[in-house]
Amino acid sequence: MVGPHRIAPDTVLIPRLIPVENGYAAINTMVITGREPVLVDTGAAIHRDAWREDVFSVVSPEDVRWIFLSHEDPDHIGNLTTALDLCPNATLVTPPPRHTTFPPQTHLITDHESFHAGDRVLTAIRPPRYDAPTTLGLYDDRSGVYWAADCFGAITPHPTSDAHNLPLDDYLDAIHRHAATLSPWHTWLDPTIYGHYLDHLAAMDITALTTAHGPTITGHRIPRVFDTIRET
């Protein structure tokens, strides 16, 4: 499925698939539809009308209580102003900004810090690959879903939001190629740091890996993807 669809209880992926030279790239948003609904990243401004229609077909704007931003890149923050305008009861949760001025109703969060969203605890956990240095992922203790921001992205040969729809070897190769473009400073940063982030995720009870830039990963493919990232 390439429209809004449920990937776990109380969790809906809002995919936006874009034709590129070698297949399809994704710019995704996630909605947690629990007692206090959460928008996770806000996509790119170029898709604003479709993004707004898809997101608010899943949750009413006035019900949104939280907006989580993983980092300040344009394809994650592109519809933030729209979201804040339409969701008057929402608090923005984000890493400390480097370039962007955020509104007063902002809660700054750092790695391993948590906040309560009604019936669940959401924890900011840095992914093992990232490009913007402030990037944080988000783990939902109730569903076991981890949003990895840019990490675990992949260009797919045809439109899909489910990694199981792709041949395993081809998919892992796409994961490897995408991961190699992230963390551009890794040549001088201690590589054991990335291994620490990956070890932490591998020890967690994760039911689904979601990413802003690829299909959702579940089941036996999760450890295979971890292995691929470790070897990149």
Automatic annotation (TrEMBL):
Q: Which InterPro entries match?
A: Metallo-B-lactamas, ODP_dom, RibonucZ/Hydroxyglut_hydro
Give the protein's recorded name: Metallo-beta-lactamase domain-containing protein
Organism in which the protein naturally occurs:
Acrocarpospora corrugata
- UniProt cross-references to SMART domains, sorted A to Z: Lactamase_B
Q: Which Pfam families match?
A: ODP
What top-level branch of life does the organism fall under? Bacteria
Tell me the leader sequence span.
none
Record domain Metallo-beta-lactamase: where: 26-196
